C-alpha cells in the first residue's frame, strides 16, 4: 500500500505527482507541470502512468503552467486523465457573474485551454458551472476520487477567481505586443541566487509580521486536501492564507480545533506571504514539503515561514523536505539548529536534484 507525493524538478515552480493504492494498481493525480524545461523530464514518466484520476494546473503563473506549453504541442495526448481541473478566463468570468503581479501567463493559460480541447480532455466536468471553486455546490464537502481517496477543495473561491479577471485581460493585451514569444520559457539565469545571511535566528524570524501575498493569480490557485487510508496530504499551490483559513476553519473546529494533516506541501514554495501563523496553528502537522530550487528573485523558501513552522510546534519532532539542495534550503542543514528545534531536513540524492518522493 502506497500513498506518496513526488516533487519533480520544476526549478522555482511545482510539478507534483500523488500516487496511492496497491502495487500494480496505483492511482495518480498530477498537479502542475513546472517550467518549460520540466516537460522533457516528466513526459516519459507521466506518459507511462495508468489510472490518472485527475490532472490539474493550480493557476497560470509560469512556474506552474509553462511546462504545459510544450505538452500541448504534442500531436496526441501524452497521457489520459479521467478528470482535468483548470480555471482560465471563462471560469473567472463565471465566478464573477455568480458571486502586484508576478510573472503571470494568461497567454500560456489560453494555450493550455486550447490544448485541453485538442486532446478532448474532460475539463471541470464534475462542476455544473464548470468552475473549480469552493463556491461551486459540488465542492461543499469531500469529493470521492478513486479507491477510497477523497478530496476536500480548499481554494479558490469565487471572489479570488473574479479578482484575477482584470489582470488576466491586461496581461493578455500586453502579451500581444510583447517582443518575445511566450512559447519561449521566460526562465533566465540573471541573479539566479540571492546572497544568504548566516544561521537563521528562528525566534527573531518568527516575530516578523505577516504580510499577505498581493498576487491575484496566486489567489486563484486550486488547493486541496487528499485523504486516503487515514492519512492526509495537503497541496496548496500558491494559494492565499486567508482563503484557506476561512475554508478550513469549520473542518478544524469539527476536529476539536486543529485539522490533522500528515504532510503539507507549503504554499507558494514557502513564501512568507502565503502561510500565516494562524494557519499553522489551525493544522496539526509535523511534516512539511517545499518545492523550489531557491532561484529567481524570490529566494524561496523564506526563512520566516520555516521559523513559523518550528516555533509553532517546538516540542515535537518535525520534518522538512526539500526537492533541491539549494542555497535557501541548505541553511537548514545545520545540526545544532536541527537539535535545538527538533527537526530533520531531508534532501534529494546527489544524482537526482529536483526529485524527491515522500510517503504521506
Ligand atoms: Zn509558484
Features of this protein?
360 residues, alpha/beta, Metallo-beta-lactamase, Chain A, 8-stranded mixed beta sheet, 6-stranded mixed beta sheet, 14 helices, 16 strands, binds zinc ion
Short summary:
With 360 residues, this protein is α/β, with parallel strands linked by helices. The protein contains 14 helices and 16 strands.
Q: What can be said about the biggest beta sheet?
A: 8 strands, mixed
Report the CATH C-level class: Alpha Beta
Task: Write out the strand line-up for the largest beta sheet, numbering strands in chain order.
Answer: 6-7-8-9-11-13-14-15
H and E string: EEEHEHHEHHEEHHHHEEHEEHEEHEHHEE
What small-molecule ligands were found?
Answer: zinc ion
**What count of structural domains?**
1
Structural class: alpha/beta
According to CATH, the fold-level topology is Metallo-beta-lactamase, Chain A
The overall pLDDT average reads 91
N-end to C-end Cα span: 11 Å
Overall CATH architecture:
4-Layer Sandwich
The radius of gyration is: 19 Å
* Strand percent estimate: 15-25%
Number of helices: 14
Number of strands: 16
- Name the CATH homologous superfamily: Ribonuclease Z/Hydroxyacylglutathione hydrolase-like
Helix content: 25-40%
